[in-house]
Amino acid sequence: MSALLRDRLFQAWILLCAVTLLSLVIGGASGAAVGVAVLAIAFAKAWLVMFTFMDLARAPLALRVIACVWLACALGTLLAIHAGAAG
């Protein structure tokens, strides 16, 4: 069991489960800040999946940069849409 707890993929999986539960808990509330928080958590989870399970951490620098820029642009776009819909 101790070897399993030291496994990086297992740790990432546990973190993803915990953050998913956090999203579920705070998603039940209302307000613009809650929407922003849930979006930020979702994109943090996407980053974790890409860099851990898809092994992007060992990919060439250009591919890592493209992935991070894509995530930032997607998050920025969704936050802008959310701000327009909320305001």
- Helix/strand/pairing class, anyone? mainly alpha
Fraction in helix: over 70%
Mean pLDDT over the residues: 89
Order of helices and strands: HHHH
Largest beta-sheet characterization: none
Number of H/I helices: 4
How many structurally independent domains? 1
Instruction: Please state the overall shape, judged from the principal axes of the Cα atoms.
Output: flat
Distance between the termini: 50 Å
Q: Which runs of at least 5 residues are low in confidence (pLDDT < 50)?
A: none
Radius of gyration: 15 Å
Tally the beta strands: 0
How much of the residues is beta strand, in percent?
A: under 5%
Keywords:
87 residues, 4 helices
Write the topology of this structure.
Layout: H1 2-6, H2 8-27, H3 32-53, H4 61-86
Helix pairs in contact: 2-3, 3-4
Descriptive report:
- This protein is mainly α and 87 residues long.
- It has one domain (2-86).
- Helix content is 84%, strand content 0%.
- It contains 4 helices and no strands.
- It has helices at residues 2-6, 8-27, 32-53, 61-86.
- Helix 2 packs antiparallel against helix 3 (32-53) and helix 3 packs antiparallel against helix 4.
- It is flat and about 50 Å long.
- It starts with a helix and ends with a helix.
